[in-house]
Amino acid sequence: MKVLKFGGSSLADAPRYLRVTDISTATHQTDGAAVVLSAPKGVTNALSLLCEQAAAGEDFQPLFEKLTSTVTGIASALNETLTGFEYANVIDFIDTHLGVLKQHLEGIKLLGVAPDNVSAGILSIGEYISVTLFSAILSAKDIKNRIIDPVSYILAEGDYLDSIADVSLSKARFTDVPNDGSELLIMPGFVAANEDGEKVTLGRNGSDYSAAILAACIDASCCEIWTDVDGVYNADPNQVEGAVLLDKLTYQEAMELSYFGAKVLHPKTIGPIAQHHIPCLIRNTLNPAAPGTLISNEKSEKWTSVKGISQLDDVTMFNVAGPGLKGMVGMASRVFEVMSNANISISLITQSSSEYSISFCIQSKDAPKALQLLEDAFALELQNQLLDPIEIRQDLAIVTLVGDGMRQTKGLAAKFFNSLAQARVNNVAIAQGSSERSISTVIESKRAKKAVKVIHQNFFSDRHTIDVFLVGCGNVGTELLSQISKQQPALLKRNIQLRVYGIANSRKLLLNSQGIDLSQDWQPALAAASEGLSIERLQQFANDNSLINPVIVDCTSHEAIAEQYVAMMENGFHVVTPNKKANTSSMAYYRKLRNTALSTNRQYLYETTVGAGLPVIDNLQKLFSAGDVLHRFEGILSGSLSYVFGKLDEGMTLSEATATAKENGFTEPDPRDDLSGMDVARKLLIMAREADLSLELSDIEIESVLPEGFAEDCSIDEFMQQLPALDDGFKERVESAKAEGKVLRYIGSIEGDKCKVTIQAVPASNPLSQVKDGENALAINSDYYNPIPYVIRGYGAGGTVTAAGVFADILRTMPWKQMAH
Ligand code: ADP
Ligand code: ASP
Ligand code: MG
């Protein structure tokens, strides 16, 4: 004989009841079946809410009517599809029970409270209606069946609302129940009776437990729990994308997972089936072909160390502390006695080694009662200040990693806590099960989903995620998006899921929680967006979507955005940027950026601020961190001015050369930034600061291409119109250099702590004379590179190479992949 249990999720409507009938009768024909049913979906919740409404003196009529129509709706739908369905009897049963319910609710409203014994009767109505419907279906199909009322069979003790069965005494009551398969047995789940024969319940979600008790009582060969997922996964499949279905779990693993929140199985279920060695299968009513997860003594060969992660919500932590705790024998046991006498179960305990405090977690619903009881029990100690006032912390969750093989595997705890650090989650308390089968952390509830996602990713998946928010869609930003779009499939093949969740320009912010489809034109959606950019909004979005690795990519050249990098990192974002403004702001801000990156464990990457896509910053950092010291630097740092000065050699005028550079996208949006020397000065400052020089932008000597005050306050177009006024003067300089066999070059240099940007006439023997057409060249003389300099040379201008450099930085934000499981 097999026990089959169907949860509320399998009993949502008439078609689901018929599906459950098919599954049950098929098993009944081969093995004989005893079926345990929950209430129809949502019914127990409604009953519980009705009690609350009545006790609060609220109008419960609307919900009562809704409940009535749900259950009668299922009955009439069944009546329409099944001939021989005893509709009148079923409706009579429903009416009677709902009539009693209404009387009780009115009584509760008058009393202002719902006593537990009355609540137990009310909460279990759904299960009784459920078995009545099911029995009527079977009878209509001429299948002999019998309803077993748990009140007469299952003996339990404890609270009216959370009792524990005595399996051996209950078993003795089953002598009159045939277990030869002659009748299909049906039992309402969730219900039992106490010694006095009063109806009690087994705790919310307790029908799984009923099935286990029944299986033990009738010596079933198997206990099948049918639900709405294919089995037990290594994390809640409705919360974690990519959760993996487990083939097998040991009883202990299943116990630990369910105890710490895997709702697919009620934790009390394991006791009876483990004790009687009954294998348990978790299966999907909506997909009966799936084999399900087997819970038994067998170990899985697939997942040998860590099996799963579970999350227990609605947790409150108590902290009992005070000088009186130290050395006072029995204090801890008194605390726990208070809880156990009140039937409050403790999910996790930690004690400080100084014995100065004990912390423990309980379900939040029990917290007010627990606090009251503790304060009463320790009134004297509290009064005499042997104990500090009892502290409670609410809105917590417990996240637990479970697996039998954890004992033999080293480093799992480190990986677990690294994952929490990566998710930027603080541990309020931690505990390792004494069996070493689990490690738990207590964290703020609002962070739990993200924590589970990151832990899952690090333990069970090879997939990395990068969650990009792009600010600024000019030349570089737009090019970056098109490169990302092209690369996304190839990255996915390497298990990197790079999605762009947000795009912002100076006015609008476009967000999409699925990731923006870059193969489509995203411009209209951005134009139609109704909100603007703010860090708060981005942070809220990243939280709501539990993004693991959010990166803000600033492709603007705005100071206002650069000023927000510290706040961005503090809010959990990595920052990647080609914008030079932050690194060339005050030295104080420069230091703050680096300190924030360290303290928040975020990456701040700006490789493209010097030399566009050329690997300048990374190389400098490697050199200097290996102990090298800069002596001298000289180079052409501006792709645009490399281009412009190269064109002057060829005989173009300054204004023609500038206009061509601008058309080719080689200049900054405003060419004055290049011609003023400011852009080169910023790059020089960035390099100097990498070399540990403490300098400000104002310390840099700049020889501008533009005379002081030239076309300063006009628009870009007007500036371009005025530029020809400088052509003649420049022509003269170019020609007099030429007469000496030289060319003009715009050169940045660092010598000691002096940084200069100058127009120099260089002879053909100087390698910089060859650098033109947008090329950059950097020569670094240092302790290690002397007298021959370290040279970096290559194309250093334009949106394509800059975007490619930004892209490379984005990929560098990927967390270090920790040791494999
Ligand atoms: P039923 O109504 O059948 O008793 P429940 O809603 O109580 O169903 O339990 C099934 C749900 O448990 C699933 O829909 C899933 O969201 C949740 N769940 C939580 N953790 C896990 C897990 N590790 N594996 C499978 N399901 C899980
Ligand atoms: N119907 C009960 C509940 O919702 C028991 C169960 O479904 O397991 O809590
Ligand atoms: Mg359930």
UniProtKB/TrEMBL annotation:
Q: Where is the ACT domain?
A: 320-389
What GO molecular-function term can you cite, just one? metal ion binding
Q: Which reaction does it catalyse?
A: L-homoserine + NAD(+) = L-aspartate 4-semialdehyde + NADH + H(+); L-homoserine + NADP(+) = L-aspartate 4-semialdehyde + NADPH + H(+); L-aspartate + ATP = 4-phospho-L-aspartate + ADP
- EC assignment: 2.7.2.4, 1.1.1.3
Part of which pathway?
Answer: Amino-acid biosynthesis; L-lysine biosynthesis via DAP pathway; (S)-tetrahydrodipicolinate from L-aspartate: step 1/4; Amino-acid biosynthesis; L-methionine biosynthesis via de novo pathway; L-homoserine from L-aspartate: step 3/3; Amino-acid biosynthesis; L-threonine biosynthesis; L-threonine from L-aspartate: step 3/5; Amino-acid biosynthesis; L-threonine biosynthesis; L-threonine from L-aspartate: step 1/5
| Top-rank lineage group of the source organism | Bacteria
Instruction: Name the Pfam families on file.
Output: AA_kinase, ACT_9, Homoserine_dh, NAD_binding_3
Respond yes or no to whether keyword NAD is given for this record: yes
- Gene Ontology BP annotations: homoserine biosynthetic process; lysine biosynthetic process via diaminopimelate; methionine biosynthetic process; threonine biosynthetic process
InterPro entries this protein is in?
AceGlu_kinase-like_sf (IPR036393), ACT-like_dom_sf (IPR045865), ACT_Aspartokinase (IPR054352), ACT_dom (IPR002912), AK-HD (IPR049638), AK-HSDH_N (IPR041743), Asp/Glu/Uridylate_kinase (IPR001048), Asp/hSer_DH_NAD-bd (IPR005106)
Keywords of the record, alphabetical order, are:
Amino-acid biosynthesis, ATP-binding, Kinase, Lysine biosynthesis, Metal-binding, Methionine biosynthesis, Multifunctional enzyme, NAD, NADP, Nucleotide-binding, Oxidoreductase, Sodium, Threonine biosynthesis, Transferase
Tell me which cofactor or cofactors this protein depends on: a metal cation
On assembly, the entry states: Homotetramer.
PANTHER family per the record? Answer: HOMOSERINE DEHYDROGENASE (PTHR43070:SF3), PTHR43070
- What is the stated purpose of this protein? Bifunctional aspartate kinase and homoserine dehydrogenase that catalyzes the first and the third steps toward the synthesis of lysine, methionine and threonine from aspartate.
Q: Which NCBIfam families match?
A: asp_kinases, PRK09436.1, PRK09466.1
Q: Which family does it belong to?
A: In the N-terminal section; belongs to the aspartokinase family.
- Report the protein name in the record: Bifunctional aspartokinase/homoserine dehydrogenase
Task: State the species of origin.
Answer: Alteromonas australica
This protein's gene is called thrA
